[in-house]
Design a protein that fits this description.
single chain; 142 residues; alpha+beta; Pnp Oxidase, Chain A; seven-stranded antiparallel beta sheet; 7 strands; globular
Amino acid sequence: MQPMTREECLDFIQLGTRTGKLATVKANGEPHCVPIWFVIDGDDLLFMTMSTSVKAKNLGRQPKVMICVDQESFPYDFVTVVGTAHMEHLPEVGLLPYSIRIAERYVASDRAEEFGRRNAVPEEVLVRVRIERLLSAKSVAG
């Protein structure tokens, strides 16, 4: 088991349709972990969520996050992103390019715009996580 370089980490987390597992902390101190669809934008990891979601409420109180992306088959590589989240409340027209870009990664290309439009609504926020540190291991079982 050995760590990946920064470039290897970024390549790994952007490969295919791997989801991230976002860890935040609830007001009562309890951990909260949910899968997210995301894309990389420069030094940031982007995802979207409803402004009323548990994760958005958690981020509003404590913006520090961890997002784990893993390969769920042998040899079980993983990358964990450590960062600070910033929620951007954009108008629908501002959200649309991001929501389509995220959807393009996870759904058939002929449905990306449909999913993007479905998600670019007033209650939705863009979350920009500044990548501050990357923890990784390749060939965990190797």
